[in-house]
Amino acid sequence: MKLLEDRIREEGTVKPGDVLKVDAFLNHQCDVALFDAMGEEWARLFEGTQIDKILTIEASGIGIACVAARHFGNVPVVFAKKAQSINLDGDQYSTSIYSFTKQKEFPVIVAKKFLNEGEHVLIIDDFLANGNALNGLLKICETAGVVVEGFGIAVEKGFQGGGDALRNRGYRVESLANVRTMDAETGSIEFN
Amino acid sequence: MKLLEDRIREEGTVKPGDVLKVDAFLNHQCDVALFDAMGEEWARLFEGTQIDKILTIEASGIGIACVAARHFGNVPVVFAKKAQSINLDGDQYSTSIYSFTKQKEFPVIVAKKFLNEGEHVLIIDDFLANGNALNGLLKICETAGVVVEGFGIAVEKGFQGGGDALRNRGYRVESLANVRTMDAETGSIEFN
């Protein structure tokens, strides 16, 4: 999606350690007109696919998912919560996600009542790098028995392999910007 | 706002300890059509007031703020982040907020570049109870030198006093549902 790629080139910053900062418009300050265009594009890409619900994970996915949902007939958005601890009270699906950014494992939960067996789900998130967060959401979806129709991702860091691993498992992954290479020294970013 | 009050009566649950659960439509599963109506109502209430930016706090405020921003001419939404620790690198405004729900203090940060002196800001959040989170955001706004034009709140628990304390300090607080009393035993909820 040229609009998003251009914005990343203009306002994104490459930092050492394969970090791409897009906090000016995506995940700290949010450009909701951009989010709206992204939602429109995902709706175009997934046209004809049944989507009953959008699943995302706090915090950065929420705004994107909520604005995008308007283009999917206002389907409900459920966001997985980062929990203090895994609470095995039986009302929640839970899993554990390792964050490379924060270098620690954190528990993630979704209330069982918000994922119903047989529902068709689109998973939306701001970033896809190694795929740890999305694999965590997938595990929850498998346990819940929902049908994952695909992934709507804003920025995929293609060179980190998480997206292709999902594609190899047969999942549809629609990344609106897919970074092939980026360089912290020169600041250059190239897209697939 | 009758639409929100009715929804709270129908799907909200009162729990012991003054807890009102609205996770079916507001802060775990999100009804984006409801968020859109809420945004429209805040835009009506704040009509004629200059709003350059919307400020909220992760996680539950983000979806509401992003959908509402469309009714304020797509102004940018900035969400304060709950940080692991306060990082005094000079690039961030930070404060500490005590959460009664989680019974602990947590640091909150906003990058300085996203709050510019003289900007007119509307603060949006899902809940206003004792006002701790909003007072934290206010402190950051005061340090940044932005003009806080008011607060757009989904659910105020009026009996906990945080909203009136802000009103007594001269702030405009527009809560779309303001709970006067609620009872965990009978499940009854009454609004102001």
Count of structural domains of chain A: 1
Shape of chain A: globular
Q: Tell how many strands the DSSP assignment of chain A holds.
A: 11
Low-pLDDT stretches of chain A: none
- SSE pattern of chain A, N- to C-terminal: HEEEHEHEEEEHEHEE
Main pleated sheet of chain A = 8 strands, mixed
Proportion of residues in extended strands of chain A: 35-45%
Question: What's the multimeric state?
Answer: homodimer
Report the end-to-end length of chain A measured between terminal Cα atoms: 11 Å
- Please give the count of helices of chain A: 5
**Architecture (CATH level 2) name of chain A:** 3-Layer(aba) Sandwich
* Text of the CATH class of chain A: Alpha Beta
Give me the side-by-side strand order of the main sheet of chain A.
6-7-5-4-8-9-10-11
Overall pLDDT confidence of chain A: 95
User: Which structural class matches the secondary elements of chain A?
Assistant: alpha/beta
Question: How would you describe what is shown here?
Answer:
Chains A, B: Pathway: Purine metabolism; XMP biosynthesis via salvage pathway; XMP from xanthine: step 1/1. Chains A, B: Xanthine binds at residues 20, 27, 157. The structure is a homodimer of 192-residue chains. By secondary structure, chain A is of the alpha/beta class. Chain A has a single domain (2-77, 119-191), classed as Rossmann fold, CATH 3.40.50. Helix content of chain A is 28%, strand content 35%. Chain A contains 5 helices and 11 strands. Chain A has helices at residues 2-11, 32-45, 60-69, 132-144, 162-168; strands at residues 13-15, 19-21, 29-30, 53-57, 77-82, 92-99, 104-111, 120-128, 147-157, 173-182, 189-191. In chain A, the strands form 2 sheets. In chain A, strands 6-7-5-4-8-9-10-11 form an 8-stranded mixed sheet, with helices on both faces. A two-stranded antiparallel sheet of chain A has the order 1-2. In chain A, strand 8 (120-128), helix 4 and strand 9 form a beta-alpha-beta unit. The radius of gyration of chain A is 16 Å and the shape is globular. The N and C termini of chain A lie close together (11 Å). The interface between A and B is medium-sized, with 33 and 33 residues.
